[in-house]
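User: Quick sanity check before I run a bigger batch. Here is a single chain. Can you write out its predicted 3D structure?
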Amino acid sequence: MATFDFKKYKDLYQPGNKPGIIDVPAMRFLMVDGEGDPNTSELYQAAVEILYGLSYSIKMSKKWGVQPQGYFDYVVPPLEGLWWFFGKPFDGSVIGRKDEFSWIMMIRQPEFVTEEIFETAKAVLSKKKPELDISIARLEDFTEGLCAQVMHTGSYDDEPPTIAALDQFIEVNGYRTEMSGLRQHHEIYLGDPRKTAPEKLKTIIRHPIVKL
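Assistant: Done. Predicted structure follows.
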């Protein structure tokens, strides 16, 4: 049986370089909350390591002895991030302000992942990497709802023009951006900055909207 790849859902993971509207359904995520500059924060680095460690532990749960009910083989989905400034929505301007960030990093999980499977994965990862504080991770369902999104190609620091075009699209089409709760500036990272030149990185940018 072929390995399933969530990125086959083109509306969710393959938007064009021109903005569009999407109604994002409920999905299940591993999440870690944090604050500060992702380039210098030890918590951010730990969050990413924990999310990937748990995600790959769950992917390999077929080897736990008793395969989880509903298990299927799949590609671990991409890293995602929800971003805002302390008490303020994200406005696209980040230079000199990255230490003000609040963020939630997350990785989507298949629907078969229950709290029991999550707890078992935590125990498995804790044995492999006891130095990690895995208690900071949680499993949560998130319904993002109505959003506008666009594909950004290039460095993360070069996102402001793309965000400005997305904001203009939202306004012209009779919507407004409304960020609250988990509905924040949302980035989905389709490229690995360790292996990809900055100008070739692909990042989905998604903003929650409401009709005027």
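DSSP finds four helices and seven strands in the chain.

User: Great, the batch can go ahead then.
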